[in-house]
């Protein structure tokens, strides 16, 4: 089945530093999604990528969809304490309102 | 827009009892909703697809008689954990797309189930 390989598994960074995490797959995805999950909460959509090569920003977050549609990265600039959480990449199993397959997540800790 | 709610946010029950979890799309209609389960420090795993007006489809290894899903309206899906046991303790999360053919899913805040 489709799998998303996410790295790193965890990161400890100083407040103000930039962060980069990525996700790869052996399968092609038509859409690539990045979510953040706070403890005890459901995932919240950060960025959705629809086109190969697309580079999209959302505030301090920037994500790019790989040309081959098999990879993506998420960057966070000038991290702040509230960036703490688990970041998941996800992609739909197929097109059109289908469930998502998730990476295993990157746990981000920010040291003030 | 695209808000999904869940109720209750947390529930504690005794072993052998049944628990119902509601998932609602607040500002859009959803013919399809999805139920996921998340164990501590793990990712989300799909349990089933809830289809309005028809039977749910379950992932391999998920017992349909134990996890009853009802999607009676375009804004409400319910998951009932029947005869709950401690191993059913988990974080249950639902999601929905805000339009037909949508690839992007919006998630509810989750329900923490603890079975004693």
Q: Can you describe this structure?
A:
- The complex is a heterodimer of chains A (112) and B (116).
- With 112 residues, chain A is an all-beta fold.
- Chain A is 0% helix and 52% strand.
- The model of chain A has no long low-confidence stretch (mean pLDDT 94).
- By secondary structure, chain B is mainly β.
- Chain B has no helices and 11 strands.
- In chain B, strands 2, 4, 5, 6, 9, 10 and 11 form a 7-stranded mixed sheet that branches. A 4-stranded antiparallel sheet of chain B has the order 1-3-8-7, with no helix packed on it.
- Chain B is globular, with a radius of gyration of 13 Å.
- In chain B, 36% of the residues are buried.
SSE string of chain B, helices as H and strands as E: EEEEEEEEEEE
Alpha-beta classification of chain B? mainly beta
What characterizes the major β-sheet of chain A?
6 strands, mixed
Task: Give the termini separation of chain A.
Answer: 40 Å
SSE string of chain A: EEEEEEEEEEE
Structural class of chain A: mainly beta
Most extensive contact: A-B, 26 and 27 residues
Percentage of residues assigned to helices of chain A? under 10%
Radius of gyration of chain A: 13 Å
- Number of distinct beta strands of chain B: 11
Overall radius of gyration of chain B: 13 Å
How much helix is in the residues of chain B?
under 10%
Compute the number of strand runs of chain A. Answer: 11
Q: Summary?
A:
With 112 residues, chain A is mainly beta. Chain A has strands at residues 5-7, 10-14, 19-24, 32-37, 44-49, 55-58, 61-65, 71-76, 85-92, 100-102, 106-111. In chain A, the strands form two sheets. In chain A, strands 2, 4, 5, 9, 10 and 11 form a six-stranded mixed beta sheet that branches. In chain A, strands 1-3-8-7-6 form a five-stranded antiparallel beta sheet, with no helix packed on it.
Task: Describe the secondary structure blueprint for this structure.
The complex is a heterodimer of chains A (112) and B (116).
Chain A (H helix, E strand, L loop, with lengths): L4 E3 L2 E5 L4 E6 L7 E6 L6 E6 L5 E4 L2 E5 L5 E6 L8 E8 L7 E3 L3 E6 L1
Parallel strand pairs in A: 2-11
Antiparallel strand pairs in A: 1-3, 3-8, 4-5, 4-9, 6-7, 7-8, 9-10, 9-11
Chain B lengths: L3 E4 L2 E4 L5 E7 L6 E7 L6 E7 L5 E2 L8 E7 L2 E6 L8 E7 L9 E2 L3 E5 L1
Parallel strand pairs in B: 2-11
Antiparallel strand pairs in B: 1-3, 3-8, 4-5, 4-9, 5-6, 7-8, 9-10, 9-11
């Amino acid at each position: 089945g489709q799998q998303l390989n996410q790295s790193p598994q965890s990161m400890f960074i100083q407040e103000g530093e930039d962060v980069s995490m990525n996700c790869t797959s052996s399968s092609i995805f038509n859409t690539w999604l990045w979510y953040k999950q706070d403890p005890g909460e459901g995932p919240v959509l950060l960025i959705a990528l629809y086109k190969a090569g697309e580079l999209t920003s959302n505030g301090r977050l920037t994500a790019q969809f790989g040309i081959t549609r098999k990879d993506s990265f998420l960057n966070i600039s000038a991290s702040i304490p509230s960036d703490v959480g688990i970041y998941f990449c996800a992609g739909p199993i197929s097109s059109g309102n289908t469930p998502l397959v998730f990476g295993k997540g990157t746990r981000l800790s920010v040291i003030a | 827009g695209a808000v999904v709610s869940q109720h209750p946010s947390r529930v504690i029950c005794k072993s052998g009892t049944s628990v119902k979890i509601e998932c609602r799309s607040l500002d859009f209609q959803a013919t399809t909703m999805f139920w996921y389960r998340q164990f501590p420090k793990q990712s989300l795993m799909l349990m089933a697809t809830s289809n309005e007006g028809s039977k749910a489809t379950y992932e391999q290894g998920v017992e349909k008689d134990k996890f009853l899903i009802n999607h009676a309206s375009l804004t409400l899906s319910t998951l009932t954990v029947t005869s709950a046991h401690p191993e059913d303790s988990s974080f249950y999360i639902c999601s929905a797309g805000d339009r037909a053919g949508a690839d992007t899913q919006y998630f509810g805040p989750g329900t923490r189930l603890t079975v004693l």
